[in-house]
Amino acid sequence: MSGPALRAARLSPADVLRVGAEGLRSRRARVVLSALGIAIGIATMVAVIGLSTSSRADLLDRLDRLGTNLLTAEADRDARGDEIKFPKSAVAMVERIGPVEHATATGAVDARVRRSDAVPEELASGVTVQAARPDLLDALNARVDQGSWLNRASERLPTVVLGSVAADRLGVTAPGAKILLNDRWYVVTGILAPIELVPTLDRIALVGYASAERYLGFDGHPTTVFERSTDASVEAVQGVLARTVAPGNESGVKVSRPSDALAAKAATDEGLTSLMLGLGAVALLVGGVGVANTMVISVLERRQEIGLRRALGATRGSIRIQFLTESLLLSALGGLAGAALGAAATFAFARAQGWTTVVPPWSLAGGLGATLVIGVIAGLYPAVRASRLHPTVALSAT
Amino acid sequence: MTPAVIELRAATKTYPGGVHALRGVDLRVERGELAAIVGPSGSGKSTLLNLLGTLDRATSGEVRVAGYDVSRLSDAQLSALRARHIGFVFQHFHLAPGRSAQDNVADGLLYGGTGLRERRSRARTALEEVGLGHRIGHLAHQLSGGEKQRVAIARALVGEPDLLLADEPTGALDTVSGALVMNLIRDLHAAGRTVCVITHDHDIADSLPRRIRFRDGEIVDDSGAAPAAPGSPLEPTEEVTR
């Protein structure tokens, strides 16, 4: 004697969501606080990824603009430790290498720089002098910030152009000022904008070759040769550059590619990014633990509700899915808030740096995906615990 | 013959530690009856309530509710049995405070596989049936104790259960509200529903057609089924089955 076969009904997905949301709605403060943990983690990760992507995009932009085909050859010490000298004809010889489009050079000048004769000679100003050819500016893609660059006329006169840092150190704020090179007064005709490819030139006072030879005892030997070639032949040129500028003395030549330094900066940023991502992941993990904790406490507090639902006909499965849904909604809430927060932080910071904001969509999707995984993991144990409560708890509790 | 709503044969319940909460209970409640299960605390009536509500299983003996042999059903099937055939009313109402009377009542149908729209409309009807048609949109915590219990009764009967189990339904109410709730229960019985009221209060028990008295896990007195609902057959309340 038995009725028709009993089969428990399944809640529709809409009902599952409704019941889960109901549980959160009645405990708002706790929901906000535990979602905050997740939000902080996700925001950190999205912002870190967004900022590093934005900064790398900016760096690539700059590399694009500055070009990666510049090579420098510096006179250094040879195997015996003696300083080598490039021949005066070094630039002409470099220009004779096939793919080289443009070559120029600077030569170190042994001169002391002072702001005025009131400054004692022994006091180092931190600024050195180099003789430069007028075509240096083009070769480096550099530009003058104030005043003018050396020209055919001024390169013979006691005039000097200061790098941005050099001007700063000497306290020169505008062209027209006079500074002392050794005991000779020089007029500052221009101040350069920071040179991104060769930042060492920022600390230098540049004078014309002729002027340096005439007033400062410059011997006319270049110490650094700059050349640009076609992009495809940079490595080939790099192979022969040392031999060309200092035949027989190659070991004393330091050949480098300044754009490598910028690219290396991108690589070091990557290391920092991984570290920050790791920190974000830890924050996310802590957030996940917070959600799990909230859910466990929730199950303890809601024994009566669970018992009531069992009495109303909820199966263990419906209780399990109810608490799992709550945990998922809780962390998804945090994830959404975190993604928005992270994107906003990226936007604000990138704007302040003058970068274009790049928030990769995969970082947002990944962040939200991570919160869902965390929601499931954090909710699983409390949900199973809730489903194992005996149905009589609603009746026994007061 | 339609099966009895409740049928217990030599049902026992022993808790771990050797506590014999029920010692061989035989009980039969027919469709349409209104019965009081009365006894002091510790008499086993709460254990009996758990068995009748299929919230717990008997240690031995047979328990049939709405014709189903509880011992043969899985946990999920018992859930379905509760969802479709049993309605619970608790001493402390167990309403969700921040939700409307209608939503609380509609939850009585949540696990029976009914759609939201139908749950809401049937909840409205059930609230009207308990005289709370004007409180449909009120939040549970805005209602008086008596109103809360009537909402809880509406939630129990919205699924048209075969059996309404009320556990001390007036235990948390003042006298006036309690009397109102008991009147409502009598009205439901008059409308043909089967109701079991579990109470320790003899006055309440004495006001109901059938009284089953419990002590130390055994039935000590059963006034017998009264011919309250028309057409329900009179059966001997205790069958010797051992």
Describe the protein's architecture and organization.
The complex is a heterodimer of chains A (398) and B (242). In chain A, strands 1, 2, 3, 4, 5, 6, 7, 8, 9, 10 and 11 form an 11-stranded mixed sheet that branches. Chain A has 398 residues and is of the alpha+beta class. Chain A is elongated. Chain A starts with 12 loop residues before the first helix and ends with a helix. In chain A, 54% of the residues lie in helices and 15% in strands. Chain B is an alpha/beta fold. Chain B is 30% helix and 24% strand. In chain B, a hairpin with a 3-residue loop joins strand 1 and strand 2. The A-B interface holds A 1-3, 6-12, 14-15, 18-19, 22, 25-26, 304-305, 308-318, 390-392, 394-396, 398 and B 3, 46, 49-50, 53, 55-56, 64, 66-69, 73, 75-77, 79-84, 86, 88, 90, 92, 94, 96-99, 107-108, 110-113, 115-116, 155, 167.
Topology:
The complex is a heterodimer of chains A (398) and B (242).
Chain A: H1 13-25, H2 28-66, E1 70-75, H3 90-95, E2 100-109, E3 113-114, E4 128-132, H4 136-140, E5 144-147, E6 159-162, H5 164-170, E7 178-181, E8 184-192, E9 204-208, H6 209-215, E10 224-229, H7 234-245, E11 253-256, H8 258-301, H9 303-312, H10 316-353, H11 361-388, H12 393-396
Parallel strand pairs in A: 4-9, 6-8
Antiparallel strand pairs in A: 1-10, 1-11, 2-4, 2-10, 3-7, 5-8, 6-9, 7-8
Helix pairs in contact in A: 1-10, 2-8, 2-10, 2-11, 8-10, 8-11, 10-11
Chain B: E1 6-15, E2 19-29, E3 34-38, H1 45-52, E4 60-65, E5 68-69, H2 75-85, E6 86-89, H3 101-106, H4 116-129, H5 145-157, E7 163-167, H6 175-190, E8 195-199, H7 202-206, E9 210-215, E10 218-222
Helix pairs in contact in B: 4-5, 5-6
